[in-house]
Amino acid sequence: MDINKNLDLEEIREKIDRLDSHLVKLLEERLHIVQEVAQFKKLTGKKIFDEKREKEVIQKNLERVKNKELNHYIELILKDIMDSSKEYQKFKIGISTRYVNDLELENKKLGYTGVPGSYAYEVLMNLLKNNKNSNIYNIEENKNIFHFNSHKDLVEAVHTNQIDIAILPIENSIVGEVRDSIDLINTKNIHIIGEVRHKISHNLLGVKGSKMEDIKNIYSHEQAFMQCSEFLSKHEWHLNRMTNTAISGKYIASKDKKENACIANMKTKEVYNLELLKENINNEEENYTRFFIISNEDIVIDGSDKISIVTSANNESGALIGLLQIFYKYGLNMVNLKSRPRVSKPWEYYFYIDFEGNMSSEKVKMALEEMREKSNYLQILGNYKLYNLEI
Fold it and tell me: Which residues form the Chorismate mutase domain (predicted)?
C-alpha cells in the first residue's frame, strides 16, 4: 500500500476529534430518545431486551454502509450502542421487582430439559410436591409441564413467554459449571427466583434381563461420564454421548438390546422399566448439582438471601479489584466468582458473582449503584433463596 509521506498525524487526529465531537452530540441525542423508550416500557410493562428489534436495527444500518469492508467493525460499534442503550433503560426504569410470600407454581407453565426421568425433571417434581400452593395429586400428569431438548431451547421458551418457570442446571460439585447456562441467562430477559441443590446418584442401567457381561455400549450425558470416570475406566465399553441422562434411558429402552446400557438416576429406571446393573457408580459419594429456578417475571420470594449478577470491568489496571472492593466497603459477603468470555469481544470477560443479600437492603442498593458507575456492564440476574426439598 502506498503511504502518503506528506500526511500529518496531528492533522489526522484533529479530523478524528471533530468527528468524535459530532458523534458525542448524536449519541447524547439518541440517549434522550432512549429515555422516552424507557418511559414507554415502564408504563406498558414491555421488556427492555427486544431481540427481534435489535437485529432489525443492526441489519438496517449495515445496509447503509457503503464500504462493505467495514461492515464487521461497524456491527461491533452498533452492538455496543445497543448494549449501552439497554443499560440506560435499566437505569431509568429502575428495579421493578415484585415481592411475594412463596413460589407460585399453581397454573403456571413449567419446563425442564430432557425427558421424564431426568435430574431436572426429578427436581421439578420435588419442587411441586414441596410447594404449599400446589395440588400434590397427579403431579406427573400435569398438562402444564413441558420438556425441551436443550438448555438453549428451554431459556428461549422462558424468554418468549411460552412457559413461565423452568429448572436449569448451573453447576456440579464435582466437574464444575454447566458452561452455557449463565451465558443464556445473561443474554435473555429472564430472572433467577430460586436455587435447588440436588444430590446426584448415577446408576448403571440396562434393559430387562440384561447383565454386566452383556454390555458393549454405554449411553449418557458427558457430565455423567466424567462423574463416573473411575468406574468406567475398569471396563472396555464404547461410550456414546447424549444430550441428557434420561434420554439415554429412553433410547436403550426403545432399542431393547442387552448390549446397551446407560448411566442415569433411579427415576429413569422407574419410568422406562430398566434393570439396575450397578448402583451408585459416582466417583464421589457427595455429588450435587445446583439448579436455578428461572422465571420470565422479576420476583423476590420471602427469605431470599442471595443475589447473582454479571458484570464487566473496564480494561485498565486495578479495575476488577476496584469492583470487588465494593463488596468489602458495604460489608457484603461474596460467595462465588467466575469469569466468562464475552463472545463478541475476544479476550474480554464477564464476571459472574454470587453474594449474600436482599434487594430491599439499602447497602445492597448502594453497592449495586456504585458497581453500575464503576463497571462497563452490570446485569442483575436475580435475588433468590435456597430450597431444601424433601425427596
Answer: 3-93
Query: Is 59 within any annotated ligand binding site?
Result: no
Check the annotation: does 2 bind a ligand. Answer: no
**Confidence band for 1, pLDDT divided at 50, 70 and 90:** very low
Among 185, 280, 182, 259, which Cα is nearest to 216's?
Answer: 259
**Cβ-contact 111, 145 below 8 angstroms:** yes
| Spatial separation of the C-alpha atoms in residues 49 and 187, rounded to whole Å | 9
- Name the CATH topology of 203-278: D-Maltodextrin-Binding Protein; domain 2 (3.40.190)
Report H helices in 45-161: 51-62, 71-93, 119-130, 151-159
The rounded distance, in Å, linking the Cα atoms of 302 and 356 is 14
Give bridge partners of residue 377 from the DSSP assignment: 312
pLDDT of residue 264: 96
What 8-state DSSP symbol labels residue 173? Answer: T
Tell the burial category of 159 from Cβ atoms under 10 Å away from its Cβ (0-12, 13-18, 19+).
buried
Task: Give the residue numbers marked as catalytic.
Answer: 289, 291
CATH code, 98-199+288-387: 3.40.190.10
- Residue 41 labeled ligand binder: yes
Inter-CA distances, 105 with 109, 110, 347, 351, Å = 8, 8, 41, 31
May I ask the CATH class of domain 9-93? mainly alpha
Residues 134, 334 contacting (CB under 8 angstroms): no
Q: Which residue has the cell 425441551?
A: 148
CA contacts within 13 A on the Cβ side of 59: 6
Rounded to two decimals, what is the model's pTM? 0.77
Q: pLDDT tens digits, residue range 155-196? A: 999 998 899 999 999 988 877 777 778 888 888 878 999 999
Q: How many of the other CB atoms lie within 10 Å of CB of 255? A: 12
Q: Which amino acid is at 190?
A: I
**Residue 54 annotated in ligand binding:** yes
